[in-house]
Amino acid sequence: MSDADGGPKQVADPAYHSENHTAAQTCGWTKNALRGEGKCYKYIFYGIESHRCIQMTPVVKCNERCVFCWRDHAGHAYELGDVEWDDPAAVADASVELQRKLLSGFGGNDEVPREVFDQAMEPRHVAISLDGEPTLYPHLPELIEEFHDRDITTFLVSNGTNTEMLERCDPTQLYISVDAADRQTFDSTVQAMEDDAWDSLIDTLDVLAEKDDTRTVIRTTLVKGHNMHHPEWYAAMCDRADADFVEMKAYMHVGHSRGRLDRDSMPDHSEVREFTQKMGEYLPDHDVLKEVEDSRVAMLAEDENTWVPKLEKSSEFWEQDSLVEY
Q: Which residue from 299, 307, 302, 243 is spatially nearest to 46, judged by alpha carbons?
């Protein structure tokens, strides 16, 4: 597919709103939060206000073909040489404007209080996690700083294959996807496009261990029959990374993954909890277990208070806001 100027189209999914290579999509929890129907588990775990969170990516291309991914692998052709990259300020501008367009219709919704809608028009969080592999965007560290300069927190999710880039990135919270604890499972479940992807992931664990100012998370999508084995090996990887938090989340049988996996591949919450507890036996410092059953997610942490400190309601971060709670 091509853009009007004849160049290659960077975002082909019609469900995404996009500006060149920047794409955004409204999260279901954002819509729920606007209507007062609940918030994402990231609020419960970390303090993220769902109605003020942008779900975006600076690049939809990906260097992995995970069997559990809900995206269409055909739309992730790993070709980057022809991309004309926007600068970080333009990507940040596009992200905010795309979010406002996506949520504009809620301004006339009787179920949404006007104060809540007005807050949503001034996002305070960005989840760089919508699609693709964000570290393929060459100006990612500068983009993160651009968001921070605008007083927007950043949650970056990466597959850990671009170690040098991640070494330069200092988001508010950095998630690394560890969806296998051994090379054989990695090859069959993640299906990386590069031969050295597993080695790069291991190197990235060491980079995480050196992060002092960035909160770090090891996250795993649990798929029955594929990667739910050897919890002690996962624990060893988390220990090597010296991760602040460990998240285990169930694979969900949605999107294009339904053409690759059976519905039986989706664990229920009790299975997620059990696997997480088994990991916890090998991570004695992470003796706090939190869980959100509706999202089929469990977390291990060192302390009971897991919120980002600046997102505490008494924080100066919210000083200019009259944050509506309901």
A: 307
pLDDT number for residue 7: 39
Exposure string for 257-288, b = 16+ CB within 10 A, e = fewer: beeebeeebbbebebbbbbbeebbeebeebee
Placement of tokens 């300020």 in the chain: 89
Report CA 224 to chain centroid distance, whole Å: 21
What letter represents residue 302's amino acid?
Answer: E
Average pLDDT over every residue of 118-129: 96
The pLDDT score that the predictor gives to residue 229 is: 97
Identify which of 156, 132, 31 has the alpha carbon closest to the alpha carbon of residue 73: 132
Number of Cβ atoms within 10 Å of the Cβ of 213? 6
**pLDDT tens track for 237-288:** 999 999 999 999 999 999 889 999 999 999 999 999 999 999 999 999 999 9
Q: For 188, phi and psi rounded to 5 degrees?
A: -85, -30
CA–CA separation, 45 and 35 (whole Å)? 21
Dihedral sign, CA of 171, 202, 236, 186?
A: positive
pTM (global) more than 0.90: yes
Long-range contacts of 267-271 (CB under 8 A, 24+ apart): 267/222, 267/223, 267/224, 267/228, 267/296, 268/296, 269/293, 269/296, 269/298, 271/222, 271/224, 271/228
